[in-house]
Amino acid sequence: MSQLALLYESHGQQSVESNPIPEPREGYVQVRIEAAAFNPVDYKIFDRDSGLLIQTYPIVLGADAAGVVTRLGPGVTKFKVGDRVAFLCAPAPDGVGAGEIGGFQQYAVADVKITFKIPANADFDAASSFPGAGMTAGRALYAQLGLKTPWAGGEGAYKGEKMVVLGGSSSVGSYTVQLAVLSGFEVISTASPAHFAYVKSLGASTVIDRSAPDAAAQILAAAGGPVKYVVDSISLAPTQILAVDVLQSQGKLVLELGADPSAKAAADARSIAILLQMGAGAYYKKCSIIHCREDFWDSIQGWVERGVLKFNRTRILPGGLRAWEEGFDLHRQGKVSGVKLVMHPQETE
Questions:
Q1: Which residues form a coiled coil (predicted)?
Q2: Would you tell me how many other CB atoms lie within 10 Å of the CB of residue 335?
Q3: CA distances from residue 97 to 89, 102, 130 in whole angstroms, order as listed
Q4: Is the pLDDT of residue 288 over 70?
Q5: Count of alpha carbons within 13 Å of 191, Cβ hemisphere only?
Q6: Phi, psi (5° rounding) for residue 228?
Q7: How many CB atoms lie within 10 A of CB 223?
Q8: At 305, phi and psi to the nearest 5?
Q9: pLDDT tens string 186-215
């Protein structure tokens, strides 16, 4: 049986081609993909990778997908055929690779440990926005910062404490805000004024204009002084410097990108710990602690049903898998704001 897949054939070369439908092995399910979300990492790999991450061609990119379970691998009891699921398309150490798991195709296999059932109050598009960004947010809070986990008795554990999340309307930022609130934090965030209401709807108590010249002073006023934790979901030089400015001595800063030299020097001078996420390689090379925490993924359905977690707003790009060029270009040009771009592989002609 064959399907249509967006094959990344070599550095800078990608096209929609016929490709075999992957079969699930033990611990995996086969999924008919109804929605595949874009991430900045997708175009960055396409544009910049030259053997650093991708070792074997062709593969299928795409870290986030949602769809319907069509086959069960041996021993799988957690899901049944017909279940609506979303999953992280992350190759695992057991040898299942990105060609089988990548989200930019009509069928893929999903590791049941990093797959969750989509609740009745959510659709495929919204659910597809969670896996990569949600995992990154969870990793920032519970692996990098080492906070008590809300899925293991830590819900509300940090009531009365404050956290700053820079870039609260971004996909990673929006999930970081919500998980921090679930953990009990009062969250102060930044965004453009157009997204203030959205970020507040996620639970942030205060949202400050990211471009305000006195943003640091406003954050410090809202927090009542320097804070212990900042998660910078943008991680460009200006946001890193802002983060250091509002952190207390010996505070902790989580970055999604590499540390800016000026920000690092300022952080070192005040014994601020800079904690780096693993970046693009996390999707294609190895499994992080949050990838492997099955109880994290098992909690998503209930959180959404309770209304304590909201999936991203989405924008659907027409053309099925052939929408990839538009999606990559929109991200390259910085024209994605406050929404997750999604395409529908089954609509590919």
A1: none
A2: 9
A3: 9, 8, 21
A4: no
A5: 29
A6: -85, -35
A7: 19
A8: -60, -35
A9: 999 999 999 999 999 999 999 999 999 999
pLDDT of residue 177: 98
Q: How far is CA 24 from the centre of its chain?
A: 24
Instruction: Name beta bridge partners: 86.
Output: 66, 116
Q: What is the pLDDT of residue 101?
A: 87
pLDDT for 41 equals 87
> Exposed e or buried b for every residue in 247-276, given b needs 16+ CB within 10 A?
beeebbbbbbbebbeebbebbeeeebebee
What is the DSSP secondary structure assignment for residue 24, as one 8-state letter?
Answer: P
- Portion of the chain with pLDDT greater than 70, in percent: 92
Query: Counting every residue, how long is the chain?
Result: 349
Record the tokens describing residue 7, joined without a space.
């094959």
Type of residue numbered 86: A
Q: Could you read off the pLDDT of 134-155 as tens digits, one per residue? A: 999 999 999 899 999 999 999 9
Asked whether the beta carbons of 311 and 127 are under 8 A apart, the reply is yes
Whether residue 284 contacts residue 312, with contact meaning beta carbons closer than 8 Å, is answered with: no
3-state secondary structure 259-274: CCHHHHHHHHHCCCEE
Question: pLDDT averaged over the chain?
Answer: 92
Cα–Cα distance, 184 to 143 (Å, whole number): 17
Cis peptide leading into residue 238 (ω within 30°): no
- pTM above threshold 0.90: yes
Distance CA 174, CA 136 (A): 11
35 conformational bin, left if phi > 0, alpha if psi -120 to 50, beta if neither? beta
Q: Strand pairing of 186-191 and 59-60?
A: unpaired
Pull the structure tokens for residue 176: 């970081």
Q: How far apart are CA 35 and CA 86, in angstroms?
A: 9
Contacts of residue 146, defined as CB under 8 A and 6 or more positions apart, other chains included, come to none
DSSP 82-146: T-EEEEE----TTS--HHHH-SSBSEEEEEGGGEEEPPTT--HHHHHTSHHHHHHHHIIIIIIS-
The gap from C-alpha 334 to its chain's centroid, in whole angstroms, comes to: 17
Q: Is 295 exposed, middle or buried (0-12, 13-18, 19+ CB in 10 A)?
A: exposed
Amino acid identity, residue 242?
Answer: L
